[in-house]
Specification:
It comes from Cohnella abietis. It is a multi-pass membrane protein. The chain folds into 4 domains: 2-196, Jelly Rolls (Sandwich), CATH 2.60.120.260; 226-404; 445-517, Signal transduction histidine kinase, dimerisation/phosphotransfer (DHp) domain (Helix Hairpins, Orthogonal Bundle); 526-679, Heat Shock Protein 90 (2-Layer Sandwich). The protein has 16 helices and 20 strands. The protein has 682 residues and is α+β, with helices and mostly antiparallel strands. The strands form 5 sheets. Strands 1, 3, 4, 6, 8, 9 and 11 form a 7-stranded mixed beta sheet that branches. Strands 15-17-18-20-19 form a 5-stranded mixed beta sheet, covered by helices on one side. The chain is 51% helix and 18% strand. The chain is rod-shaped.
């Protein structure tokens, strides 16, 4: 609402005439006819059009006047953007005289007035040959000119139906010379109201910026962690300072600043610092989208531009205005990109900040076009900043609201926790009781493991003692010549070698099992297609199964199996299948069957391999122990009858080393089955 009122005031303040624009008179060939203009009813009129003009053309030496060229020139307009009637372009630095004859009705009772804008960079106005106002010192040479920019209002009486205006302008210190905005004329009351409106709207915006700046400084002092408050305060203050140096020039008037060079240096420094603090404010608000390195780059650029303003003359750094404007534009583009990303990621207040910054950037673009003389307008950056401030106030309100909401939520949670404290204590007691039961279970498991260890030692002792005792008996028989026949001696030696080989196999199995359990094995992994693995198993065991009279089959049972593969150590996986298949052969009678099935399950990202036989199966109470070390289905059987009892334990460790699982179960139709689940290759 406040922004709307300010804009309405601004638009009213810019109104110069009650007539339609097409009926407003325009100057032609240095004459403007206002004889039909009713000052009280029609209001203020711009003295725009073609004025008479004399240009004092200079050589490269600015202190040396060479000639005077008489012509006509469009007003308003800056010199560098205009051409004289003969097509000759004007330079922005030089000396020129404007002349305009005003035809009007004699105003005997009304005092008339003319409102002059900021004219670069020194001027004198003569009315009917009398000097009525001057800004700076106007000279035909650069050494004679003292620049000073300030708008002026001149009141005068009309003694006849014609008024002659002569405006002498000199510029040797600024990039742009001439009359940038319209000169307006009206009766004293209308011009005075226009001046008051301009001053009032600038003072309102200036006061708002200064007050909001100090307000955010106070917020920063109260909470030093919120660096964004300090940066936003500096943004408001620098824009306010720049506004006070241009336009009506309130700061220049208050400080009686007669040094134009110092004033314009302060203006450019405030301009650069406004862009720098604005970028810093947005970067600190949304650091994930705008990294800190961008703020460092902005700081270095701002420092360089300020250094240039300090060390070079105004004509140099004002001519480099495009660099300063690019700094502001590029900073604005980077901020907009960061805010768009923040809005997409639903950052707090990002949408409001984006709307405020977009409006602010539009006013920046307007001012850049205006100050470059590309279109007629006024300085709108303070209005854009005020709009950004309104959006920022909404963001602050949103943050406070969310903070209060979180505080209320935490208060409610604390109340709930306090009310349910007894329930939580009871729950905690139950958890402790469950933990105690878990410890009891762990104790039982440890006792079982200790028993298993004792049985392991006993089994190892049994499996080693029996063959060693037999070896000892055979050796004693050979030593005492109990066995004398050569054939019998050879058979005994072969039997002894068989026992030694069995011992070596048992010792090797124990070594392999200990290495696997310690996870000290390095797998030689390779990508094996399921079709290739199936063919490998058929090739290795097909003929042997056929020789033993057992039906053997290896097949793929899923449509996805043909195109999938597994990543395995094929040599170690061969050992797994050797243990499983030879166990199956041992308990499968002649005429029985052993079937291997492989099925890929992409939805679970695994492959299921099953080795099923038609043998006697496994006792139900033994299913949970088949993978224990030294487990044997026949408890009375020992190593002399074949098998170390470590094969399935080794198979289990190899499968788990491949991040897989293995389990045993009995089939409904009879016989046992071993199921292996391995991950599919990526």
């Amino acid at each position: 609402m406040g922004i709307a009122l300010i804009l309405i005031t601004f638009l009213n303040g810019c109104t110069t005439s009650n007539r339609v624009n097409s009926s407003v008179p325009s100057a032609e060939q240095g004459v403007i006819d206002l004889r039909e203009w009713l000052w009280n009813e029609d209001g203020i009129v711009p003295l725009s059009g073609t004025w008479g003009f004399e240009w004092y053309a200079n050589t490269d030496n600015p202190d040396m006047v060479t000639s005077v060229i008489a012509s006509n020139l469009k007003v308003p307009g800056t010199w560098g953007k205009l051409h004289m009637e003969d097509g000759q372009p004007l330079k922005d630095q030089g000396y020129g005289v404007y002349q305009l004859k005003i035809l009007h009705q004699i105003q005997r009772d009304n005092m008339m007035a003319i409102r002059l804008p900021n004219i670069s960079t020194a001027y004198e106005l003569f009315i009917d040959g009398s000097l009525v106002v001057a800004r700076g010192n106007v000279g035909e040479k650069a050494s004679q000119t003292i620049p000073f920019q300030m708008p002026a209002t001149v009141f005068f009486e009309t003694k006849s139906a014609e008024t002659d205006l002569k405006l002498v302008v000199a510029n040797y210190d600024h990039r742009r010379g001439g009359i940038p905005t319209a000169i307006v004329m009206g009766n004293a009351d209308h011009i005075q109201k226009l001046q008051i409106r301009h001053a009032a709207q600038e003072l309102i915006i200036f006061g708002c910026l200064i007050m909001i700046g100090f307000y955010h400084i106070g917020l920063y002092i109260l909470r030093r962690k919120e660096i964004t408050n300090l940066l936003f305060a500096l943004l408001c203050l620098f824009v306010g300072i720049r506004m006070g140096l241009i336009g009506e020039g309130f700061i220049v008037q208050w400080l009686h600043m007669s040094n134009w060079g110092m004033a314009i240096r302060f203006e450019y420094i405030a301009f650069v610092l406004s862009g720098w603090t604005g970028f810093g404010y947005i970067q600190k608000m949304y650091p994930h989208e705008i990294k800190g390195v961008w703020f460092k780059i902005s700081s270095y650029c701002a420092a360089l531009l300020i250094f240039i303003v300090i060390v070079v003359p105004p004509i140099t750094f004002t001519s480099m205005i495009i660099i300063y404007q690019l700094f502001i534009l590029l900073s604005s583009v980077r901020m907009l990109v960061g805010l768009v990303q923040s809005a997409i990621r639903r950052r707090e207040g990002a949408k409001l900040a984006l709307i405020g910054l977009a409006g602010f950037v539009l006013t920046i673009v307007n001012d850049i076009l205006f100050y470059n003389g590309w279109w007629l307008s006024i300085d709108l950056v303070p209005f854009g900043l005020l709009f950004l401030i309104v959006m920022n106030s909404f963001i602050i309100s949103l943050r406070f609201s969310l903070t209060y909401e979180k505080a209320e939520q935490m208060s409610a949670e604390l109340t709930e926790w306090n009310n349910s404290l007894e329930v939580r204590i009871a729950e905690r007691t139950d958890e402790l009781q469950k933990s105690n039961m878990t410890l009891e279970d762990a104790k039982v498991d440890l006792e079982r493991m200790e028993q298993s260890r004792s049985e392991l030692v006993s089994n190892i002792s049994h499996d080693l003692r029996t063959p060693i005792t037999l070896l000892q008996g055979y050796l004693e028989a050979l030593r005492d010549n109990v066995i004398t026949e050569p054939q019998q001696r050879d058979n005994t030696i072969k039997l002894m070698l068989t026992k030694v080989e069995g011992l070596n196999a048992l010792i090797q199995d124990l070594f392999d099992l200990s290495v696997l359990e310690a996870r000290q094995v390095v797998l030689s992994l390779e990508n094996i297609p399921l079709t290739g693995w199936k063919e490998r198993l058929v090739e290795q065991y097909g003929m042997e199964m056929q020789a033993k009279g057992i039906h053997f089959e290896c097949k793929l049972v899923s449509e996805f199996s043909i195109s999938n593969s597994v990543t395995i150590d094929i040599r170690r996986m061969d050992r797994v299948f050797a243990n499983l298949l030879y166990n199956a052969i041992r308990y499968t009678p002649e005429g029985g069957s052993i079937i291997i099935t492989m099925g890929a399950m992409p939805n679970r990202h695994c492959v299921e391999v099953t080795v099923a036989d038609s043998g006697t199966g496994i006792e139900t109470e033994d299913l949970s122990q088949v993978f224990d070390r030294f487990y044997k289905k026949d408890k009375s059987r020992h190593s002399s009858s074949g098998g170390s009892g470590l094969g399935l334990s080794i198979a289990k460790e190899i499968v788990e080393l491949h991040s897989g699982e293995i389990r045993a179960y009995n089939q409904e139709r009879g016989g046992s089955a071993f199921q292996i689940i391995l991950p599919l290759s990526d």
